Amino acid sequence: MPDDVWEQFLRDSVEGVADAPKEPSARARVVTERLRDAPAGNDGRRTYTPAPARRKKGWYLVGLLASVALLVVAFDPWNMIGASDTDGASGPPLAQESGRPTGAPPVEPARLPTLAEPFRGSPAVRWADGAAGITVPAARATGWMSKAQVEKALRQTRDFLAASSLDPAVLRGERPTKAIALLNPHQKDVKDYLAAAFGAPTEENDPLLLFSRFDSSYARVAGDVVKTRGRMTFREGDRGALQVTTDVTYVYPVVRAEAGSDEVVRTIARREVVVNWDDPSKIITEPGTLSLVSYKVDMTNGGCDNSTGYFTPEFGTRGSDTEATGGESVDPYDRSRPMFGGTGSPDGGCRTASRS
Questions:
Q1: Which helix (H) or strand (E) holds 11?
Q2: Among 271, 289, 353, 354, which residue's Cβ finds the most Cβ atoms within 10 Å?
Q3: DSSP 47-76
Q4: How far is Cα 265 from Cα 254, in angstroms, rounded to an integer?
């Protein structure tokens, strides 16, 4: 590298680059740490636990680019350089979530979503699309399963989440047949739950605990993209089972069902689903099926005290603060807290969402 270029680089390193963004405050930093995410022990309004069943030339350019990259990292930890003010995004896509974050994502500029940019003004604009946002951990032999079997089971667990919360047919309100086919048919509690949920739903037997559905006569998903962020962890469960815990937040942009509707609001659902892949020598099960251990949902703009079996988003307010009328304010994008970690509303029911 020429001496004058090197000296300039050293000066920039010490004095800083002109007009470089200020380092964000400590509150704006998000540092992820790898923690094992055990299922939350506190219960909530929408929760249910069934009985377990279970490459000498060219180095100058490379060195210069590497030096610039170091400066960008030092002065722009939140990836604000090059961010566009017109696409609704505040940076490049986020890396997959590898552990529980230590805080909520920064608040985005208050901008209303549109049909062209349904995630504008939301942290989800930087999240992955569909199942790509669900982190699958590296497999290792666990319980009765070999490494290869664990790898397959983790993949099938993600398939179940996609079939229950991302399948376009299910989102239109159809029965989640693909997801149900992945459930152990010998779990009586689950069979009873499914029969009641799709027959006469109640708060206890609510399809929304496991499945994302909109009444096609009332609302529909705007576009083909659902944003997700979440992860899976696993351990050995009872009787040598592979127990997988999933914690995923789904963001659905929706409009009214009527043709020509253009008001976009967002419904957000965070689900924690725990499943067992049971040893068939110890538990009655069928090949390729999982047993439900527990499942619960925390929703925003999905319908407060709703027992219709469908999300019923509120329009006319762009979905802001529509989930409750009392109790603490809850940030639906804050994945640093376990589900139902707060006190909720005074009556133990709905809470107020701080953003959507």
A1: helix 3-15
A2: 271
A3: EE-PPP----TTHHHHHHHHHHHHHHHHH-
A4: 6
Of 86, 124, 122, whose CA–CA distance to 107 is shortest?
122
Distance CA 141, CA 37 (A): 19
3-state secondary structure of 123: helix
Q: What are 45's two structure tokens?
A: 């309004």
Distance CA 273, CA 251 (A): 17
For residue 348, name the pLDDT band (cuts at 50, 70, 90): low
Residue 23: name the closest of 87, 84, 71 by CA: 71
Q: How many residues can be counted in the chain?
A: 356
Radius of gyration of the chain (CA): 23
Question: Strands 227-236 and 134-135, how do they pair?
Answer: parallel
Q: Is 229 helix (H, G, I), strand (E, B) or coil?
A: strand
Question: Predicted confidence band at 328 (pLDDT cuts at 50, 70, 90)?
Answer: low
Residue 305 pLDDT: 77
Q: How far from chain centre, in Å, is Cα 216?
A: 23
Q: Which residue has the tokens 């957000």?
A: 268
What's the CA gap between 151 and 142, in Å, rounded?
10
pLDDT band (50, 70, 90) for residue 235: very high
pLDDT at residue 330, rounded to an integer: 87
The first and second tokens of residue 59, run together, are 């180095």
Average pLDDT, the chain: 79
- Which parts of 176-227 fold into alpha helices (H)? 177-180, 188-197
- Strand partners of residue 231: 135, 247
Of residues 124 and 43, more confidence is placed in: 124
**Secondary structure class of 294 (helix, strand, coil):** strand
For residue 19, CA distances in Å to 2, 5, 26, 52, 262 come to: 25, 20, 21, 59, 39
301: Cα separation from own chain's centroid: 16
Taking Cα atoms as reference points, which of 77, 67, 93 lies closest to residue 22? 77
Domain map of the chain by residue range? Answer: 47-54+94-353
DSSP-derived 3-state class of residue 46: coil
